[in-house]
UniProtKB/TrEMBL annotation:
<dbReference type="GO" id="GO:0020037">
    <property type="term" value="F:heme binding"/>
</dbReference>
<keyword id="KW-0560">Oxidoreductase</keyword>
<keyword id="KW-0349">Heme</keyword>
<dbReference type="InterPro" id="IPR016053">
    <property type="entry name" value="Haem_Oase-like"/>
</dbReference>
<keyword id="KW-0479">Metal-binding</keyword>
<feature type="binding site">
    <location>
        <position position="183"/>
    </location>
    <ligand>
        <name>heme b</name>
    </ligand>
</feature>
<dbReference type="GO" id="GO:0006788">
    <property type="term" value="P:heme oxidation"/>
</dbReference>
<feature type="binding site">
    <location>
        <position position="21"/>
    </location>
    <ligand>
        <name>heme b</name>
    </ligand>
</feature>
<dbReference type="InterPro" id="IPR002051">
    <property type="entry name" value="Haem_Oase"/>
</dbReference>
<dbReference type="GO" id="GO:0046872">
    <property type="term" value="F:metal ion binding"/>
</dbReference>
<dbReference type="InterPro" id="IPR016084">
    <property type="entry name" value="Haem_Oase-like_multi-hlx"/>
</dbReference>
<feature type="binding site">
    <location>
        <position position="135"/>
    </location>
    <ligand>
        <name>heme b</name>
    </ligand>
</feature>
<dbReference type="Pfam" id="PF01126">
    <property type="entry name" value="Heme_oxygenase"/>
</dbReference>
<keyword id="KW-0408">Iron</keyword>
<dbReference type="GO" id="GO:0042167">
    <property type="term" value="P:heme catabolic process"/>
</dbReference>
<dbReference type="GO" id="GO:0004392">
    <property type="term" value="F:heme oxygenase (decyclizing) activity"/>
</dbReference>
<feature type="binding site" description="axial binding residue">
    <location>
        <position position="28"/>
    </location>
    <ligand>
        <name>heme b</name>
    </ligand>
</feature>
Length: 230
């Protein structure tokens, strides 16, 4: 058996959710390797950097949840319609706490965020592509996001959920159980080989947007620090 045939056989033996994870591992790792991401996870990110990230999350999840509502009854896009995951209400409360009652007037999407949200909204015409973005964001929040929750709570002295509600999924009884069910839903989707491959590629695209956003946030943070120095 040739190397190519062996690789294909291993790929064919994977479930869809396993293909998504295995096929995008390097993209996932690259997104987490940026200085901004590392500072967030280590608890060394300045508070205003955390606020800037929360603001961009607001625009991203607003787009995701708009499309989720539109596709709620679609046989593919609606398969991951879980309102209990929705983050916009939590982000609104976080931003009100972090920025004050006029927070909507103080935040704007960065260029990468605008491109990212445009791509998400475009997937209303390709529900399987929406699955890619939904999977990338929410499964990340339920996994590595829970580590970040503990870090930011300690780093910024947050209490009672104020300022980090984004990371709190109190409508889910068990995060591990929910993730297992979510993967089972993905595996039950009626997607042929070509469509699964397209979705894997779209997950890579989602990670690329996240990598570019981390880099842009890092540049903004550096510019703000330079400005503070006069």
């Amino acid at each position: 058996m040739s190397t190519a045939q062996a690789t294909q056989e291993r790929s064919d033996s994977l479930t869809f959710s396993e293909r998504l994870k295995a096929g995008t591992r390097s993209s996932h790792d690259a997104a987490e390797a940026h200085d901004f991401s590392q500072a967030l996870v280590s608890g060394t990110l300045p508070r205003h950097g955390y606020v800037a990230l929360a603001a961009q999350h607001y625009f991203i999840y607003s787009a995701l949840e708009e499309v989720a509502e539109t596709l709620a009854d679609h046989p593919v896009g609606g398969a991951v319609y879980f309102p209990e995951l929705h983050r916009v209400p939590a982000l609104e409360r976080d931003l009100a706490f972090l920025c004050g009652p006029d927070w909507r007037d103080t935040i704007t999407p960065l260029p990468t965020t605008r491109a990212y949200t445009d791509r998400i909204r475009w997937t209303v015409h390709w529900p399987a592509g929406f699955i890619a973005h939904h999977y990338t964001r929410y499964l990340g929040d339920l996994s590595g996001g829970q580590v970040i929750k503990r870090v930011v709570q300690r780093a910024y002295g947050f209490t009672d959920g104020a300022g980090f509600e984004f990371y709190i999924f109190d409508r889910l009884d068990s995060l591990p159980r929910f993730k297992k069910n979510y993967r089972a839903v993905l595996d039950a989707l009626d997607l042929d080989e070509a469509e699964q491959t397209r979705v894997v590629d779209e997950v890579r695209q989602a990670y690329q947007f996240n990598s570019e956003l981390m880099a842009e946030l890092n540049r903004s943070l550096a510019l703000a620090s330079s400005s503070d120095l006069g």
